[in-house]
Structures are given as structure tokens and as C-alpha cells.
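> call design_seq(struct)
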């Protein structure tokens, strides 16, 4: 069989997308291979098909148990001989799998790196014909990265024991530095490197200033995604719990996921997320790596991620099916303060902290930009986008810049006169001429800057402080959170340096409502005739029932794209069924007859 035949007969797809075909050739021809491809780009097929084409067992190293179970059950439903080995199996089950491997009765074996490195396991592989090692989420080797897994550093020593096996490393995240580290640490031998575009054109990127976070989140979901599945990321467990409770009180199906929950609870919530529609998962970053749910319509960040890579990877969980999706974030001065403090007080050598601050600066630049956000993300991955994307907030409603020097001078002067001893809230009170207990205690009503800031509201002053901090014209003292001068503060104060600001000074009382996005099903099926619509509803009901019966998510029975393709093609025979997107031999065998029934009288 050729790769294309396997693609058609097993996976039910017509053609390779992107560089899949070249990547598969590279592996099958015996080269080490490095693949950088964005989430949803179709990495899995790049190693799954070679495993099916080559003699022996392909071992897939993947960091998360949930991910492997999901992939293996998908593969089994397609009729592929795939298994996983992990701690959830008992002694007999493990032995049986090992036995089958020795007899070449398994094509793909998924494992976590810990299991692979366990003493003794290596011995049991001696009699197995290992065709290839696929290292998924290979950026986990990077000590600078956010997903570092020490076990990944030891994989090379194991792989080297199997000189006949090829190695393919894959990731959705990689700046240049990580790229080099992956080749080095996994000891890839003169690898063929495939870098796909990291653009995710169906994701709309938006960043808003943080005001009343919960209300902003509520408006966003209600106006644009009220019946969609989404993920809301928060920094702390406590905030996850609070946000879940808030969303529930507003009638949404919200669940929590964070490291403080019991193992069972986490699994249960993840299972609900994977298998049901219209679920909102509120989570810390503990949730998500490898979550392969194609129809996540939005990812919302209530707190600033640590870097652009983290942001890109977290938002990348939206829209894997290629349909339009939103990455929405709110952020404010407090995020900057908190992130800086986390880095400074965290563990790690000074080099590490320096890199972390640089990464933070990069994502802050992204937040404050007045140019196309997609350009900035892609540039981070060394890609140039020549035209504006027209699918991010700065493209869709361009942000004005204005000369903010006078405002900055008022503010800096007030900070100077209060001896750089106070935080943002008090400085703004003084600018507004408020008579608070603190103002009285320190006699700040006698300062010349008392009450000179009435031309802007709280929100606007906070935005200016935030922009000054982000651009390095103010610093926040770590322990007492007071605002203090940097080298450039006096340059602004003396008029030697101009300060341009984003004009997001008016708090939007009513958040700007874009036209509500249609739910994906409507998106795909907008031109259905009455008859088609009826078939569509019938098949959808059948899909729900079947999924329930089999205990799998609905999209595993038929994806939305398959549904759409079915309605388009109205197949009358099994042969015609093969033409449908996502339908291959196993689906024809399992569901073919039932599906054809729906179309019997439709022509
Ligand atoms: P990644 O691991 O890169 O995030 P996946 O391998 O999970 O992406 O693939 C994303 C989606 O694209 C899956 O639903 C997959 O079935 C689909 N897909 C992959 N390759 C093709 C192809 N050649 N034709 C159609 N769909 C594909
Ligand atoms: Zn843009």
C-alpha cells in the first residue's frame, strides 16, 4: 500500500494537507525527522501512517495519559492495531500487550516517557522489532520552556539502543532556541526539518483592558459564544473555582480543572468536556496539553500567560476543525506586577530569570501593540506576514495612538512628589483630588499635583500607568508594589522623550458587541434546503444517540465536517460513502448502512 492509499482507506481522507506527504516520505525513507506544525495541522497522521507502512511496532512517546487513551480509542475505531501502555493497566494486560508486540501484532504503541525509561522495560523490548520512535510534544525537552519534562532528556539514550529505528520529533511550539535544543537533546541525526506556517487563520485574536473581569467574560460569552464549547484560563485555583461558580450562576455549563482537585474529579470533568457539547472548562494551565477536541470555539484568558509561546499554545486549542473561533484575553497592570513578581521570587538561576523577563516583555509587547496581532505572533516564530490579517482586533477596529506625554508628566510628577512610595490606587486618588484617609495621613492634599488629573477617569489612568510600566518608563517595586522611576522617567518628565499611548482611555461601559458569531453548525450548513435540513437534524440525532451508546464523543462518530460533506454528497452506495470527508473502511463497516438509510429517498 502507498501512504495515500492508507490515508483513504483507513482514515477516509482524500488528500494530504500541508507537508504531510513529504514528512511521511522522509520517515519511510529512513531519515530522522523534525516536524514543527501548529496545533490542528495534522501531526498525528505524520507518524501514524509510517507506523502502518513499516514492518514492526512504532512507539509513540506522549506526555499525557489522557491524550494517549483518546488517540488509541480513535485509532481502534478506525480498525488500527493500536494500544497504550501505562500505569492504568494491570500486570496481565501489560504482558499481553508485550506478547503481541513480540509477535508483530501491534502497529502503534503509545507510552509515557516514564514508562519507557523504567528499568526492565527496555529488556522486554529486546525481542520487539521497533520500526520508529515518534516523540510527540518534543518541546518538553526544553529546560527554558513551559512544559519541561526531565524524562524527555533521557529518551535519546534509549532510542540509541535501536539503531534500525527512525526517530521523528513533533511539536506545535518552537522558537529557534527550542528547535536547536530538540535536535541536540534527542540526538536527531542530520534530520530533515519541516516547518509549517504557524498561522491559524480561523482564530480571531483579541485583547482588552481588564476592568470588571467577570462581567467582561460574561458579555463576551453571552454575545458571541452562548452555545459553544470553550476554555477559560485563570492563573490560580481559587480564581478557577470562583469563575466556575460565577458562570454557573449565569446558567452556563461550567466545570473546573486544576491541580488541587482529586484525580477522579479532574478525570470526570475532562471526560465531560471531551464528550459533551456546550461545555465551558475553567482551568489553570494544568488543563489542555494534547486535548484533541476539534470544536472548541473560544479560549478566554482572564490572566496574562507567561509568554507568547504559552499563549499561542493555549489559544491553539480553539478551532482545530478549521472553523472560525475566538482567542480573547483581558489584561491589566496587576498582571504585569504579578508576573514580574512570580519570576523574581521563583526558583531558578539568574539566566533563567532573565529569559523569563524577556519572554514576558514579548507578550506584553503583543498586548500593547497597535499593529496586527497575528503579525506579532508569527514574527515570534520567525515568520513574516506581509499583509494585515483582518482577523484580529487591531485590524478590525484600528487603535488610535496619541501623544500621551502630558498625561505621563502629570502622573510621574505626582509619583515623584509622593516620594515613589505608593502604588497605583493611591496615586490616582491624589490625581483625582480625593480625600481619603491615606491622603490626609500623608498631607497629600497639599501637593501641587493634588487634583490635577480630573481630565481622565480611573480606568484611563490605570491604562497609562500600565503602558508606562510595560515600556519601561516606570517600575513596580516588588515588595510594596509602589511605583518607582526608571532611567527614562525623568526624560519624559523633562520633555526630552515623547510618550505615545494606545488610546484605550475610555472604559467601554457597554463592551463593543460584534455581530454574534454563528454557531459552527449554522456556519457550515447555511444554505440547506428544507429537505436537507431535515436529514441533517435526523443524522445529528442519530449521531448523538450512537455516541452515547458507544460511550464516545459525538465527533468521533462523525465530525461536523463529515456531516457537512454527507449533506453535500448525499451518498447512495458504500463506494460513494468513501468519498465523504472523514469516512474510511471502519466507518463504512460500522455505520455505513445506517447512514445510507438517511439518504434512501432523498434524490
Ligand atoms: P495536531 O496533532 O497537529 O494538533 P491532529 O493530528 O490532531 O493535529 O489533526 C487535526 C485534525 O485534522 C484532526 O481532526 C485530523 O483528523 C484532521 N486531519 C489531519 N490530516 C488530515 C487530512 N490529510 N485531511 C483531512 N483531515 C485531516
Ligand atoms: Zn491582524
Amino acid at each position: 500500500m502507498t501512504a495515500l492509499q492508507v490515508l483513504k482507506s483507513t482514515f477516509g481522507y482524500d488528500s494530504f494537507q500541508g507537508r504531510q506527504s513529504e514528512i511521511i516520505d522522509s520517515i519511510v525513507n529512513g531519515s530522522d525527522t523534525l516536524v514543527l506544525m501548529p496545533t490542528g495541522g495534522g501531526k498525528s497522521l505524520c507518524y501514524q501512517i509510517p507506523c502502518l507502512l513499516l514492518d514492526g511496532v512504532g512507539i509513540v512517546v506522549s506526555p499525557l495519559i489522557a491524550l494517549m487513551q483518546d488517540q488509541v480509542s480513535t485509532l481502534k475505531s478506525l480498525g488500527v492495531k493500536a494500544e497504550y501502555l501505562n500505569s492504568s493497566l494491570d500486570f496481565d494486560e501489560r504482558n499481553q500487550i508485550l506478547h503481541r508486540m513480540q509477535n508483530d501484532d501491534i502497529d502503534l504503541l503509545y507510552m509515557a516517557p516514564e514508562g519507557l525509561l523504567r528499568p526492565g522495560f527496555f529488556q522486554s523490548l529486546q525481542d520487539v522489532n521497533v520500526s520508529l520512535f515518534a516523540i510527540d510534544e518534543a518541546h518538553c525537552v526544553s529546560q527554558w520552556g513551559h512544559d519541561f519534562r526531565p524524562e524527555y532528556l533521557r529518551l535519546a539514550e534509549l532510542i540509541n539502543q535501536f539503531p534500525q529505528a527512525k526517530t521523528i520529533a513533533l511539536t506545535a511550539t518552537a522558537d529557534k532556541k527550542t528547535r536547536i535544543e530538540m535536535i541536540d537533546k534527542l540526538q536527531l541525526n542530520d534530520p530533515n526539518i519541516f516547518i509549517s506556517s504557524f498561522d491559524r487563520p480561523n482564530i480571531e485574536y483579541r485583547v482588552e483592558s481588564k476592568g470588571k473581569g467577570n462581567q467582561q467574560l460574561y458579555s463576551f460569552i453571552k454575545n458571541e459564544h452562548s452555545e459553544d464549547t470553550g476554555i477559560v484560563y485563570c492563573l490560580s485555583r481559587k480564581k478557577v473555582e470562583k469563575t466556575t461558580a460565577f458562570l454557573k450562576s449565569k446558567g452556563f455549563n461550567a466545570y473546573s480543572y486544576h491541580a488541587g482537585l482529586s484525580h477522579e474529579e479532574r478525570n470526570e470533568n475532562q471526560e465531560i468536556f471531551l464528550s459533551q457539547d456546550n461545555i465551558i472548562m475553567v482551568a489553570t494551565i494544568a488543563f489542555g496539553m494534547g486535548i484533541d477536541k476539534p470544536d472548541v470555539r473560544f479560549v478566554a484568558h482572564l490572566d496574562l500567560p507567561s509568554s507568547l509561546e504559552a499563549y499561542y499554545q493555549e489559544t491553539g486549542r480553539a478551532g482545530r476543525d478549521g472553523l472560525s473561533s475566538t482567542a480573547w484575553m483581558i489584561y491589566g497592570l496587576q498582571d504585569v506586577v504579578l508576573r514580574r513578581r512570580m519570576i523574581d521570587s521563583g526558583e531558578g538561576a539568574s539566566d533563567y530569570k532573565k529569559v523569563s523577563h524577556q519572554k514576558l516583555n514579548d507578550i506584553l509587547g503583543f498586548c500593547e501593540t497597535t499593529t496586527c496581532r497575528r503579525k506579532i505572533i508569527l514574527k515570534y516564530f520567525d515568520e513574516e506576514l506581509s499583509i494585515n490579517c483582518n482577523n484580529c482586533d487591531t485590524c478590525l477596529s484600528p487603535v488610535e495612538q496619541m501623544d500621551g506625554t502630558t498625561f505621563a508628566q502629570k502622573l510621574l510628577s505626582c509619583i515623584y512628589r509622593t516620594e515613589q512610595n505608593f502604588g497605583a490606587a493611591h496615586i490616582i486618588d491624589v490625581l483625582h483630588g480625593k480625600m481619603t484617609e491615606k491622603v490626609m495621613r500623608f498631607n497629600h492634599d497639599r501637593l501641587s499635583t493634588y487634583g490635577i488629573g480630573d481630565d481622565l477617569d480611573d480606568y484611563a489612568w490605570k491604562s497609562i500607568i500600565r503602558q508606562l510600566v510595560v515600556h519601561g518608563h516606570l517600575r513596580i517595586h516588588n515588595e510594596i508594589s509602589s511605583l518607582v522611576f526608571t532611567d527614562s522617567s525623568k526624560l519624559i518628565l523633562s520633555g526630552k522623550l515623547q510618550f505615545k499611548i494606545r488610546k484605550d482611555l475610555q472604559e467601554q461601559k457597554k463592551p463593543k458587541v460584534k455581530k454574534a458569531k454563528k454557531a459552527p453548525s449554522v456556519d457550515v450548513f447555511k444554505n440547506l434546503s428544507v429537505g436537507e435540513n431535515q436529514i441533517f437534524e435526523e443524522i445529528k440525532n442519530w449521531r448523538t444517540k450512537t455516541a452515547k451508546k458507544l460511550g464516545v464523543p459525538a465527533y468521533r462518530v462523525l465530525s461536523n465536517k463529515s456531516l457537512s460533506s454527507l449533506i453535500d454528497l448525499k451518498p447512495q452506495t458504500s463506494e460513494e460513502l468513501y468519498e465523504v470527508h472523514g469516512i474510511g473502511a471502519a466507518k463504512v463497516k460500522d455505520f455505513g448502512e445506517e447512514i445510507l438509510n438517511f439518504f434512501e429517498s432523498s434524490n
